[in-house]
Design goal:
This protein has 258 residues and is mainly α. The protein has twelve helices and no strands.
């Protein structure tokens, strides 16, 4: 009776919902440990046993809460985001535009784009050294990174990779990186949630299920923060990126076989 009620309200089987809860503890742990990776882990793992579009919808509210939490905790540093307004505005506009296009994109195509995004994100991270950006090209680089992030975000729900690459290329220090990425992901998630809700890609049931995943994500995030000092962060990050690499390849395989 209770199981039937849960499945009726969320539109998901109890097995999928419980699996997603476990995944978001892990995804939160990854973010708490290395500062990024919650949507990448959450969406890519959930998409292994459900369709990519559902996986994206389920990630929205945990993304929103964890990034707003990150912004709140680094609020004394949020002024650092001001120089990056071209990237932020371009990203938000692009997310909105491509979120409205997303319903017309076939699920195998979304799965393929998600797989390629996750794979490239992991590959760039494993290569470690992004070439340093010449300051004279900063303006075009911001618009380019914002546009690419927006396209990926609107279609796949994952838009951190271009932002991370850009922030690494300008050699942003840790405080700037954490504050700016938190602001960009937080604002992007608000735009994505509104856009997906408007076009019907975030249903009421999915929103409820997504809200259920907030607590596991925050639990994992807090655990990751506490254990960070006891882990070899570089080795852990490499292991996570290798895992993302495999998840990306599997999503590509899944898309090509659909």
């Amino acid at each position: 009776m209770v199981i039937d009620a849960i499945e009726s309200v969320t539109g998901l089987s109890l097995v999928v919902l419980l699996g997603a809860m476990c995944i978001y503890v892990l995804a939160g742990f990854v973010k708490g440990t290395i500062g990024i990776g919650l949507p990448t882990a959450g969406v890519s793992l959930t998409a292994q046993f459900t369709d990519a579009r559902t996986a994206i919808a389920l990630a929205i509210i945990p993304m929103l809460f964890t990034n707003l939490w990150q912004v709140w905790r680094t609020r004394q540093h949020t002024h650092r985001a001001k120089p990056f307004w071209p990237l932020i505005i371009t990203m938000m506009i692009s997310i909105a535009l491509f979120a409205f296009i997303a319903p017309g994109v076939a699920i195998p195509t979304v799965t393929l784009l998600l797989g390629i995004t996750v794979f490239l994100f992991a590959l760039v991270g494993l290569l470690r050294q992004t070439p340093e950006l010449n300051p004279r090209y900063d303006g075009p680089a911001q618009f380019s990174a914002g546009a690419i992030a927006g396209v990926l975000g609107g279609l796949t729900g994952v838009w951190a990779p271009p932002i991370v690459v850009y922030m690494t290329a300008i050699r942003a220090n840790k405080d700037t990186f954490v504050a700016v990425v938190g602001v960009m992901l937080g604002l992007g998630t608000i735009v994505l949630a509104i856009s997906y809700g408007t076009v019907g890609l975030l249903t009421q049931g999915q929103a409820i299920a997504s809200a259920v995943l907030v607590l596991p994500a925050i639990l994992g995030f807090s655990l990751g923060e506490r254990l960070r000092s006891h882990l070899n962060e570089a080795a852990f990050k490499k292991a996570v990126l290798l895992f993302f690499l495999l998840m990306g390849l599997n999503l590509i395989r899944k898309a090509l076989l659909q």
